[in-house]
């Protein structure tokens, strides 16, 4: 079987593997019921959905002819490493600095991955996403995520 679109083939394969991995990892948690879903219910469903979409993209890459074969270009290492680094910083800083400080830090660091960094856009994103995350996760879902740094709340 010939790969007719390299980009679709590799992205479909990636989605398929990540989806199966998430679905498999979710089986370690309780599923609950449809009326009262457990912690494994949502990640399992999303993992299966991602795997199905990945399979569809993979199938398309093997069956539909693409112009020039859609070759995969060079890996953009700088944006990849900046995004991964900002996620690691977020995970390490959230318990100590709280959501109100850590989320704007994540947004600012992740914005440095692109070529079109503008402070105005970053500040608007920080305000909107921090307020939305507070409203959704802390107020709406009542998750126990620290909002402020531990040295303020003691």
Characterization of this structure:
The chain has 154 residues and is mainly alpha-helical. It folds into two domains: 6-69; 77-153, no CATH class. It contains six helices and no strands. The protein has helices at 6-26, 41-63, 77-97, 99-111, 119-140, 150-153. The radius of gyration is 20 Å and the shape is flat. The relative contact order is 0.11. The mean pLDDT is 91.
Summarize the entry for a quick read.
With 154 residues, this protein is mainly α. The chain contains six helices and no strands.
Order of helices and strands: HHHHHH
Please give the largest β-sheet. none
* Beta-strand content bin: under 5%
Q: What number is the mean pLDDT? A: 91
First and last CA, distance? 62 Å
Write down the overall geometry. Answer: flat
Radius of gyration: 20 Å
Structural class: mainly alpha
Instruction: Indicate how many domains the architecture comprises.
Output: 2
Q: Point out poorly predicted stretches.
A: none
Helices, by number, come to 6
Q: In total, how many beta strands?
A: 0
Helical residues, percent: 55-70%
Ordered list of secondary-structure elements with their pairings:
Elements: H1 6-26, H2 41-63, H3 77-97, H4 99-111, H5 119-140, H6 150-153
Helix pairs in contact: 1-2, 3-4, 4-5
